[in-house]
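User: Predict the structure for this protein chain, please.
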Amino acid sequence: MRVINKFCCTLLLCTPLALFAQSETIDLKTIQKIRQEEMERSQVMDIAFQLTDVSGPRLTISPGFTRAANYAISKLKSWGLTDAKLDEWGDFGKGWEIEKSYVAMSAPYYKALTGIPKAWSAGSNGSKTVEVMLISATDSAALEAYRGKLGGKIIIMDRSDVYKHSFTADANRYTDEQLEKMANDKPVERIRDTSGMRRRREMFAMLRVPALLKTMGKTDGAVAILSGNTRGHDGTIFVQGGGGFKTTDPENLLDIMLANEDYMSIVRLLKSGIPVKLEVDVKTKFISDDTKGYNVIAEIKGTDKKLRDEVDVGRSPG
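Assistant: Here is the predicted structure, written as structure tokens:
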């Protein structure tokens, strides 16, 4: 096999030889071959390319997952592994994929928006130009004032959170002093963190209102709901599930995750009294031909005759 994990190889090469000398003779020629494979004939980047750019998004039971799984099976077989196949792990539900996605602001002026439908969301049922309605409600009681008014609208919730720019690098190396401190840290007795429990309750309460609004929007006949958070910014959007994937779950309302900058721009316009319209054209597809989930597995056959004989004896009748 030519794909070698550089990190593992480096650990192997950097491990003091004295540790191995106690139990076995070091095969330096083999180690050199491993290093040569890793340094000169690595396939890691091509494999990553095939699984990402070529296969596309790999949501469970999606065409992208199937493409990636078939590639993995073919690759494992080419390396000499046996019984490479899809291995069913149990019931999952409906698959899903995006067939078309377009969202832009058409009034008060045209602006292309950065947005992606959440997984398992319904589509827009064709191209539509729709007025956006701002929802200012912090609890279910306040939400009732909007019931029956959401039909034919795209709905967006008011948000007051402020994105704070970070001026530190996304990744950094620990210093020797930090590593030493981590190594010398002593276990401490855990104290019940009531503030953490309170924050979790507050978070669940914050999520409850958008969930109720989404249900209300679906009942009233809204076209879509817009979502956003401060985690996604600078052109990066974090998208998760937007609806149920069980075979018994009903079709969900179209839920579009917008970049934080676009979301807050729309909110500011609406709060200032300026009407906003969006053009949406989203087509999604639910897949229910096969509702099972699968892993890709393969086997490296052993060559130890003694071990193979022991396994055969264990399988014999009696």
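Residues 61 and 95 are 5 Å apart (CA to CA).
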